[in-house]
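Supplementary Methods, section 5.1.

A reviewer requested that the exact input to the structure prediction be made available. We therefore reproduce it here, unchanged from the version used in the analyses.
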Amino acid sequence: MLVYDSDCDHDDSCSRSVCETVNGSHQFSITGYSLAKGMGPGKYIASDTFTVGGYDWAIYFYPDGKNVEDNSTYVSVFIALASEGTDVRALFELTLLDQSGKGKHKVHSHFDRALESGPYTLKYRGSMWGYKRFFRRATLENSDYIKDDCLAMNCTVGVVRTRLEGPKQNSISVPPSDMGQDFKSLLDSEAGCDIVFHVGDETFKAHKLILAARSPVFRAQFYGLIGNPSMDKVVLQDLEPSIFKAMLLFIYSDKLPDVKEITGSTTLCTSTILVQHLLAAADRFGLDRLKQLCEAKLCAEVSVDTVATTLPLAEQHQCPRLKAICLKFAAANLGALMQSEGYRYIEENCPSLLSELLATVAASVDEKNLMLNRKRNSSSILGLDRLDLAADGAVAESGNPPVRHMKRRV
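The structure derived from this sequence is encoded token-by-token as follows.
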């Protein structure tokens, strides 16, 4: 760990930058080593991926070496960045394990020595660090590193991270905002209410100023050019009392209301139906945050039973992200969906959505075929170019795109 710090008086501010490595190891064994020989130079055996410092890594072992010009004289070992990343700085250690019990392991490590140019930098996914001439093959096969035709090695990766620390003393903990709770209490108490809503067979009291502050529709209705500030009664059509109650609770508390508080039920079906109607009400009264909360809730609850009703709703109320998620889910579960009443509703009333659903199914098939082709060709992705970085035989290699050959001594 490297710490940059500075002394500061009580009247000055101060901070420090801490450079450290996040370390992790992976042991890789090759059973049936003799059967791996003869693959040819440049052909490798890969370990499973392992995660260190938020990145995936893999070990690549070349039984016949990586270089054609070495005529299979050496075995090669590399550590590759196996996930997306740019300029990932790391230290490495490769250990060939002595299986005789004597503990005479072959270790190549950067953790215990000073590096003149600092940690190695892997530019992008597919970049590799390791040794083209890790061990002479004839010597390896007559050593204690192979036992019962099995070879084992251990890899340690230390990803460099930098964090900034500031003074934490003399700090004061501030509680979270309780404004929403205060306004909800005001609604419950009905103190100062100046407007009454008649919704179905129920009435709800509220405050015009609060409603106008939260909804552009109410603002125009009460204080707009053709609004009526003295209005004290509003009759709302085509809206269930439970939905209006839920909308009022959001306006005052800025939270998606609890389903049980509104309906007395906790079933998933009741929750989905309530949120679907609440999304429509949010769109009607210009409550964008409530609309987004409903979208997120419907997305989390999407199922074969709900997707056929949520999809047309997303289309009607301009919810493109929810619509895309529903289309993808419906495409992946098309067989079960086609047996539902909701699918017949889409067929009869939303022909354009049916066309989009079929297009999504076709795109999903194309994507699966593309991924399959990429997997088949994955062996050609790595090892297209190399970048020598060390005089002791260690090199970092770049999978793609090609870069010019450069050398620097460590």
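Residues 126 and 399 are 4 Å apart (CA to CA). These observations are discussed further in the main text.
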